[in-house]
Amino acid sequence: MRLTRKVVIGSNNLGWRALVGKIFQQYFPLLLILWILFVLYPNPSKLVISVQRIFSPDVDPVAVEPMLCVLPSTNPISTEKAVLERIPYCYDWEVYSVPWYFPTTAEVLQNKKGDCKARAIVLASIFEAENIPYQLNISPIHVWVEYEGKMETHFENPEVKFYQLDPETGKRRFQVPDIGLREIIDSTKQGFWNPMPGGRKALLLSGLFSLVIVKVMLARRAGEEN
User: Does residue 193 lie in a domain region?
Assistant: First the structure.
């Protein structure tokens, strides 16, 4: 009786292990993605909010009112230069502890630093307050404000953008950007990986390595049992 009971329990354990191994193998890519997201965004709402703000940016003319009286002039070129000087460039890792975040105008003014998204949202808010026509442009690696008289650059030109918002008309335009994959990879490495804190890098890589080891062990065990 005891022997039969042990055999049943052993069979149940084997069946449970096989089921767990099968589920792990089947959903392994999903587990990798979830781990990456967990390490990069411990608070996933930051990622969700940022994606929403791509299409509904927080242009806030009220928040920039204190800046208006100290700007050199209402000339768009001078205004952009003043914004770039007042908002030193910093990666999102350094300001918000995540690889990519689309801030509000108030957050940028509070932190007094930020990347191209931060600078663009402040400039757009100033233009909104001064009734200067503009368009907000987004490429795979850059965000900028376009206005009459602005000079085109390698990173700021009509060919590289994939999304444009005209707040005056509400028109949204999408297009396939003319930008090389190598440039996107280099920019991603420079902006996301290089400034990433060492502890987060170690956590990310160790977790991925552990998942791979578990996958290999489960595969070997399944092969031995078969």
Answer: no
Euclidean distance between CA atoms 169 and 182, whole angstroms? 35
Q: What is the residue range of 15's domain?
A: 2-38+198-225
pLDDT at 191: 93
Geometric angle at alpha carbon 166, from 111 and 153, rounded to 5°: 70
Together in a domain, 175 and 82: yes
Question: pLDDT tens-digit profile of 102-117?
Answer: 999 999 999 999 999 9
DSSP H helical segments within the chain, as ranges? Answer: 2-26, 28-40, 45-55, 65-68, 76-86, 92-96, 105-111, 116-129, 181-188, 198-225
The pLDDT of residue 24:
74
Domain co-membership, 9 together with 87: no
- Tens of pLDDT along 160-186? 999 999 988 889 999 999 999 999 999
Instruction: Round to whole Å and give the CA distance between 60 and 44.
Output: 24
Same domain membership, residue 164 and residue 61 = yes
In a domain, 98, yes or no: yes
Buried b (16+ CB within 10 A) or exposed e, 58-82: bbbbebbeebeeebeeeebeebbeb
Return the SS3 of 146. strand
Q: Domain check: are 163 and 135 in the same one? A: yes
